[in-house]
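So, can you check?
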Amino acid sequence: MCSLTRGLALLGALLWAPWWALHGAPLPELSGDLDFQLFLQRNLEFTRKIRGDVAALQHVVCDTFQLCKEEELLLVRQDLDITQVPLEQCHSRSFQAETCFNQIRAGLRAYHGSLAAVRDLLPHHAGLVETLQLDTANLSSNIQQQMEDLGLATVTYPAENPDPLPTFSSHFHHQVGGFFILANFQRFLETAYRALRHLARL
């Protein structure tokens, strides 16, 4: 099997299957694809680092504004234009490798922009937020490069993010919005991390 065909088959097998089914469907072809395994290991570590930085900012929001529990803020959330970026294409039965990985990259790009609202909310931690934005962009770039290596079609985005930043009617809404941006980003990263981790274990 050629490298491109093998790569497409591996990605499809991972991302089409439900998470619970992946352990029951080992793919021996993975063990011989050293470049792909190296990509997985490096970006597992990178994603873990990003998740740690998001968690650190979540602790800052909790300590600074006493916004710590999501269930206590659900009513306020209804008044905010904050949504969870979807990743359903990554484990859909109509899986398309290009669609899934482009959806991950689109999500990373969206959170990269939304983090500007968190930076404005936490000026004393602007350096950490800016590092998080840079790491988010680099993770997207890593995925794009791997897609290109596998011959998958990628979406090209403009250098500047044209999406409008979230707007808030009050400082309290800004605080709650920052809380949910970080909480949603953490969930998004957990899903992406599970995908890489399961594929690395096959």
